[in-house]
């Protein structure tokens, strides 16, 4: 007659439980736009996205003090595409016309560059400390980044899948 060792079964069960927990914590599961601290990979804030992979960043231009809105979407490869730019003044730092393949429009006192195809794996942004008021717009709702990230901070913005640990470290901008 053979007897089973209860210690061996408990050890195998404990190993399976710990492995399952590790997988749940470290395997990337949620697609998100991530704001990382500089280029160090430390998640400061994020917002998840599903089917609508577009978002906008609005800010006040430092010289002419008018709004600028940059419209982005996530490509199939996971890059970020700048597809539209809206601004109110032709001044320092703003384009005077569209580039090849792009469309320039003037409507209601605002200027638009549409059909842009500028693709980046990520882009960096220093949150304005004085008047820029960088704001994320998702599904027509506005989320001032200074509510989640210290003004003056250099952030790297990218699309990536994040794991449960990252979601616990960063702030879900849309969940506030």
pLDDT < 50 stretches: none
> Span between N and C termini?
62 Å
Number of strands: 13
Strand content: 35-45%
**What's the pLDDT, averaged over the residues?**
86
Rounded radius of gyration (Å): 22 Å
Q: So how many helices?
A: 2
The total number of structural domains is 1
Structural class: alpha+beta
Name the overall outline. elongated
- Compressed to H and E, one letter per element, the order equals HEEEEEEEEEEEEHE
What does the largest sheet look like? 8 strands, antiparallel
DSSP helix fraction: 10-25%
Summarize the structure.
The protein is of the alpha+beta class and 176 residues long. Helices cover 15% and strands 42% of the residues.
What does this protein structure show overall?
- This protein has 176 residues and is α+β, with helices and mostly antiparallel strands.
- It has one domain (31-175).
- It is 15% helix and 42% strand.
- The protein has helices at 6-26, 164-169; strands spanning 30-37, 42-48, 54-60, 67-74, 80-87, 103-107, 110-114, 118-120, 123-126, 135-138, 141-144, 154-162, 171-172.
- Strands 3, 4, 5, 6, 7, 8, 10 and 11 form an eight-stranded antiparallel sheet that branches. A five-stranded mixed sheet has the order 9-12-1-2-13.
- The longest helix is centred in the first third of the chain and has 21 residues, at 6-26.
- The radius of gyration is 22 Å and the shape is elongated.
């Amino acid at each position: 007659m053979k007897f089973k060792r209860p210690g061996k079964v408990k050890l195998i069960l404990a190993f399976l439980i710990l492995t399952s927990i590790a997988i749940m914590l470290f395997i990337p599961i949620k697609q998100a736009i991530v704001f990382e601290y500089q280029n160090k990979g430390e998640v400061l804030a994020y917002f998840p996205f599903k089917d609508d992979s577009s978002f906008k960043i609005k800010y006040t231009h430092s010289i002419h003090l008018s709004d600028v809105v940059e419209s982005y979407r996530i490509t199939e490869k996971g890059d970020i595409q700048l597809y539209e730019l809206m601004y109110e003044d032709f001044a320092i730092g703003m384009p005077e016309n569209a580039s090849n393949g792009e469309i320039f429009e003037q409507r209601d006192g605002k200027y638009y560059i549409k059909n842009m195809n500028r693709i980046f794996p990520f882009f960096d942004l220093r949150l304005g400390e004085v008047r820029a008021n960088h704001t994320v717009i998702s599904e027509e709702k506005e989320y001032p980044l200074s509510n989640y990230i210290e003004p003056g901070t250099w952030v790297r913005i990218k699309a990536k899948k994040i794991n449960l640990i990252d979601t616990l470290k960063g702030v879900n901008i849309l969940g506030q």
